[in-house]
Amino acid sequence: MDKKSTLKWLAWGMLIAGFFMASPLWGNAGEIPESLELQSLSELYEGVSFDHLLHMDMVGNCAACHHHGTGDPVEDENCARCHSYSKDTEVVSCGSCHPLEPFSPEYLREKEMDANRYHRDMPGLKAAYHQSCLGCHNEMGGPTGCQDCHPRTEAGDALFRAGAYAPESGAAAGHH
Amino acid sequence: MKNLIESGVPIVDSPTRGKGKRKWSLGEKLLLGLTPRQYLIQAIRNPLNWIIGVIFAIGIPLIAGRFLFGLSFVTHSSNDYPWGLFLAFGLFAMVPLSASGFMLGTTVEIFGRHDFQPIERLALLNGLLGYFFAVVYLLVDLGQPWRLPYPMVVSFGTAAVLFLVAWHVATYLSVQVAEVSASFFEWIGWLPGKRFIRKIAIGLTVSGIILSTLHQGALGALFTYAPGKVHPLWYSSSFLWIFFFCSAIPAGLCMVIAVSTIVKKTMAWRCDEEFLDKLDSLTIGLAKGASLALITYLAIKLIGVAHDNEWAYLATGWGQWFMLELFIGVVLPIALFAWAIHNNRLGVIRFTAFLTVFGIILNRINTALIAFNWKLYQEIPHWREVVVCLTLFAVYLVTYRFILYRLPILYTWREQTDTVEELAKEKITYPKGNPAPVEMFRSMDD
Amino acid sequence: MKGISRRRFLAASVIGGAATTLTMSKKAMGAGTFEGYPEGMGVLVDLTRCVGCRSCEAACNKEQKLPEPAMPFDDPSVFDQTGHGGQKRRPDENAYTVVNRYDPPGANHPLFRKLQCNHCNEPACLTSCFVSAYTKTREGAVVYNEKVCVGCRNCMIACPFQIPAYSYSSAFDPVIKKCIFCYDTRLKYGKPPACVEACPQGVLTFGHRKELIKIGQDRIKARPDRYVDHIYGETEVGGTGWMYLSGVPFEQAGFDTTLGKEPIISNVKEFLSTVPMVLAIWPALFTGFHLLARKKGHADEDHSHESQEDEKS
């Protein structure tokens, strides 16, 4: 098993563990988690402590974030063309549909083999989170800075050459 | 130099010294037959040498800097402006100014106009040196000049215009070396070599025409890769190569007039009487050719504007600059040439030749630098870039002069043993009624 | 290697210009239109999604082992940087991709655009290179062999997107630097480039170019209010591997919309096609002129000096 897939399994494991950790609370709110640790992608950034309850209270409508299958009618007109009467699905978590690695050769091949697939343009899990969260935060005036939701890890600082890894000024001044 | 000759010092113009049959040694030939002291004195007396000395003193360290610290040390060439003055002037302007070789070669060898022979060798040399120094400028500009032979031996980008330019300039350079080597063989006294060149002269000339047509045009075609970058008035995917080829004709001819004017003024001692006698009529002949070519060039430039329907651009600032370039470099020369040829005003013809040369240089710099990236911003060359250009040009001048002083370019190599003094007394006469009395390798015994 | 016979052939034709004819006609034929490899990969860039986080720049820097940047990648002040002549940032030897900010008129939020090599189907850089340093790989990447580069920088002249950059400051080994689609480390193995993997917003969609065009069309169809009805790069200069969707007219996001559909090499074809003609016609034409001119009365004279030469020696 190479490093990448280890990481992938580890990430999935954490995601599932996150659900189980939250599961005792599901009963109280109809199997809906009150808070989630979104750690599936934490590497450059720490995981996100997502206050699901707070967001539910603010939005008041599951379909605003979870396209369909939550009991609320579908909001997106385009989705509604097929899904306005879709039954509730068993799992509605983002990661159950949105792939962790949307551009891996395996996933691309899988998509290619499935000629009848409609959702050919499904964003990966990371993109789905960010588009959904950041899109709404922009509209509603929520925090939009990267580190407002997830502080950067040391690996992140190293990649971004920030913090302790910040370049000495003028060190890399190239050709005009 | 003039003083030395007046005082009777023999200058090398034949294989042997004086009446006796002693041959000039190579060292003596190199010093023109002067003693080292005499040679040094004439060199120090020449003010041009002092100017060139100053240019070298500043420029050569800069050239060294370019090779030690990279291109950014001397140029403003950037990612947006990959080509600067080295190529705009050194390659794109020097090459058309060197079209003289194939023009005069064609005139004399192909069209049989042997009356142009006195100036043919000067035109060939001008061509050779112009190309050679275009390559020198290129070597200074190339990122890895030591890889210049790569397109010939390592990796072939056969679909590229530059591949064609590289091959044709290289082959044409060898053709020109062969053409000019006739004078060199005379000078070192190896006659079989000269005879061999003489035999293949037609072949050389015809391949010269082919190669010139193609690479003069190819230099223009290089810019057809940049349709969005070169201003539409200077750009034409169909005609750019014809513009470059066509303008190279007056450029080469006017360059010969310009060089011969300078030669006549500054080294008349080296020219033989025939050259000096014929020069005025030859200049008129060249000017006639140049003005015809200029008229053609003007016509196709206008066709170019009409073909791509670029009239609206003429009303802009770019249009005015375009029209100014055409006026200075084409329209005005046409008018001046017409007037001066009609009235036999050689001074004006010579001035106009210089003007045309300037006009061509302006056109090439416009295409490669000024109208390039017209949507972005103007790049002004680094002062070091200008100095390096000047320095290389000074090397060109020194080389040019070195060869003209020595090889039988401006004078005829005499196979027998007259001194200059005696020759000066002797009036050369030609049989009357012969329209083309001069042969390149004529013998005085005729 | 196919070059061997040609190399010998070319070497033989150094002196005789006429022999070059065959090589040149090969050249003209080689300039046919090329639609791109069917299995070529690409990236669809959705500008409406980009938030300017520059994760792609950071990822590229790490993947390609580029030099340390002047400023941290999370420093937004780079968006206000202007280079020579007020130009926005462009890819260079230290950064194969850059994100720039635009403020389209009437928009209430800025627009970000990622710049990198677009990996054309028929790359101008490739066709202009006289040592064939560039290759368009089957996977769709335009890669560059720095071992043969002479440094003429014609590719930089030719690139309609002004992408190839040159390491001018290097004296002994200056080379062209540009995005290579992470070919060596990723694309070759079917993996997406580092920037695509790093993008949090799904701005970058990696896939087969043909599939990406369908995806782009679907997005436009699904949200006609969100997108301008055009995929930039679908047809521009013969099609590019990297394509763009935008919510504002493309010229407002700094795109050159005047490039047309023809690959750059099409502009050069007119000249290239004249080459074999000149090579074929000129020798006979000018030799003919020579013969005509000689018949006019210079015939004997033309021979005279040669015979004199012979007599003398």
Description:
The complex is a heterotrimer of chains A (176), B (446) and C (313). Chain A has 176 residues and is mainly alpha-helical. Chain A has helices at 3-26, 52-59, 77-83, 94-97, 105-113, 125-140, 146-149, 154-160; strands at residues 36-38, 48-50. Chain A has one domain (3-165): Cytochrome C3. In chain A, strands 1-2 form a two-stranded antiparallel ribbon. Chain B is mostly helical and 446 residues long. Chain B contains 19 helices and no strands. The longest helix of chain B has 35 residues, at 273-307. The relative contact order of chain B is 0.15. Chain C has a three-stranded mixed sheet with strand order 8-1-9. A two-stranded antiparallel sheet of chain C has the order 2-3. In chain C, α2 (21-30) runs antiparallel to α8. Chain C is globular. Chain C starts with a helix and ends with a helix. The interface between B and C is large, with 93 and 89 residues.
Write the layout of secondary structure elements.
The complex is a heterotrimer of chains A (176), B (446) and C (313).
Chain A lengths: L2 H24 L9 E3 L9 E3 L1 H8 L17 H7 L10 H4 L7 H9 L11 H16 L5 H4 L4 H7 L16
Antiparallel strand pairs in A: 1-2
Chain B lengths: L1 H5 L19 H5 L5 H10 L1 H23 L15 H7 L2 H4 L2 H11 L6 H25 L8 H4 L7 H28 L2 H9 L1 H21 L18 H27 L6 H35 L3 H4 L2 H27 L2 H25 L12 H24 L13 H6 L21
Helix pairs in contact in B: 4-18, 5-8, 5-17, 5-18, 7-8, 7-12, 7-13, 8-10, 8-13, 8-18, 10-11, 10-12, 12-13, 13-14, 13-17, 14-16, 14-17, 16-17
Chain C lengths: L2 H10 L8 H10 L10 E6 L8 H9 L34 E5 L8 E5 L8 H5 L5 E3 L5 E3 L9 H5 L6 E2 L9 E2 L16 H5 L5 E5 H14 L19 E4 L20 H47 L1
Parallel strand pairs in C: 1-9
Antiparallel strand pairs in C: 1-8, 2-3, 4-5, 6-7
